[in-house]
Write a structure and sequence with these properties.
Layout lengths: L4 E7 L3 H10 L3 E2 L3 E3 L4 E7 L4 E7 L7 H6 L4 E9 L2 H10 L11 E2 L5 E5 L8 E6 L1
Parallel strand pairs: 1-5, 6-9
Antiparallel strand pairs: 1-6, 2-4, 3-4, 4-5, 7-8, 8-9
The structure holds ligand LP2KCY5N and cobalt (II) ion.
Length: about 130
């Protein structure tokens, strides 16, 4: 039911600036992409085995605003796993007692595929995103 580690997300105040050091190391760095429906701007760094997603707040109601108030210098915000069937994964997780954030309906994420978020208190203090593979 669980696939590859899709990305590790780091919340920062300036995503392009944060990714710059990875570019200096020769990694592929994407352009900044605003995703108003998620309240963030993303910059992806592609590594051989996964990606780093830098997320910067966008708009008044960004879901990462409080996190950055608590972590002014930035910090690891969530981890994202591929799942082969996001609806089956959601239903199994709910059955096991995990809380799906929002209305439980997958939304299209940064890679154009459906994503869901799971409450950090149900995953040992780590916010988890699942993405349809
Ligand atoms: C670009 C699209 C997409 C992709 O395709 O990759 C993205 O990644 S979008 C990324 C941003 N979107 C989201 O994060 C959506 C889901 N997040 C949420 O719904 C909220 O951020 C949250 C997880 C419910 C937290 O809400 P918030 O209002 O910020 O926090 P609270 O202060 O109410 O926190 C409650 C509780 O949870 C702890 N917490 C909060 N954020 C995290 C975190 N990132 N990792 C671990 N723990 C977290 C927080 O410390 C509180 O704990 P207590 O103080 O012990 O109650
Ligand atoms: Co993400």
């Amino acid at each position: 039911m669980l696939g590859r580690l899709n990305h590790v997300a780091i919340a920062v105040k300036d995503a392009e600036k944060a990714a710059r050091i990875y570019g200096a190391l020769g990694a592929e760095v994407s352009p900044a992409v605003p995703l108003p429906e998620h309240g963030v701007i993303t910059v992806f760094v592609t590594l051989p085995n996964t990606k780093i997603e830098f997320i910067q707040p966008l708009g008044e109601t960004s879901p990462i605003a409080k996190f950055l108030e608590r972590n002014a210098d930035g910090g690891i915000h969530h981890i994202c796993y591929d799942v082969p069937d996001i609806i089956a994964a959601r239903d199994r997780l709910v059955k096991e007692g995990a809380r799906v954030l929002g209305d439980g309906v997958p939304r299209i994420g940064a890679h154009g595929k459906p994503v869901l978020f799971l409450h950090p208190k149900d995953f040992s203090g780590a916010l988890v995103e699942i993405e349809q593979a």
